[in-house]
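Good morning C.,

I know you're traveling, so I'll keep this short. The sequence:
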Amino acid sequence: MSIDPMNLRLMRIFQTIVEAGGFSAAQGALNLSLATISNHIATLETRLGVVLCRRGRSGFALTEQGRAVYEEFVSLSASLGQFEARLRSLKGEMTGNLSIGLADNTISDPAAPLEKVLAAFTDAAPEVTLTLSTHPPHEILRDLASGRLHLAIASFPRIASGLAYMELYSERHHFCCGAGHPLFIAPDAAIDIAEVRRHRIVGRSYWGARDMKAFALPEPRATVSDMEAEARLILSGRYLGHLPEHYARAFVAAGRLRSLRPDIFAWSAPFQAAFDPAMREKRVAKLFLDLLEQAFRGPHTPAT
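The tokens, ready to paste straight into the viewer:
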């Protein structure tokens, strides 16, 4: 089968069907009727001279030949994409993909105007495809080290060897309790470390036991992987824990949360951009990092 536009179109339809898990599941993505999809696959099978899949009451299943054709086309598509990106780069255009990992629940922080950076980057490099993903900081570091991410923005639990870090801003955290908790109505004078130790405290899995160090406790009574889960537990009125000031603000205003003794328990988490130093040599990543520096006025600091 020759590689002409019609054959490529049929192969892309086949790829969509395989990745969706069947003809019916692919209808939405293809915006085609079942009859039309079936006709396209029948045409493709005729052109290739092989049966690609079994479909019927028993469900959708690839044949051995169909699996091989799918895998070869995925490889061909990637090569074609790289070829097109290379052609555009030869003409001086910024192309390709930039994958960025972000910490969760930072969108309400006025100190983190990432949307301005994203807007400036998109205007400067409209042909680049951005991929944003939100995960706990330890997972972001893992994906950065494995190459699945080009750079990451978070408050990291540790400094990873071999990465560079750019200081961005600080996120203020308050130690909170919810309405219904005994300390919610307690006077400040009655709240100290000894009193707090008597209650259930939430810990963050990615910080290990560091949440508990200030209270000299061996382990938390509940563990979470993100801010929303921690807020849920605190709002239950049965747990105490730290929340970002910007995240807790609306709950405090609504009378659902109280910040306990910020003079003792509040602290600031430094947010940084982490990346492989080699990213500074790649035009797309360098542009994004330069825009970050301009937006946050943070110095570039290599990892030690």
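Safe travels,
E.
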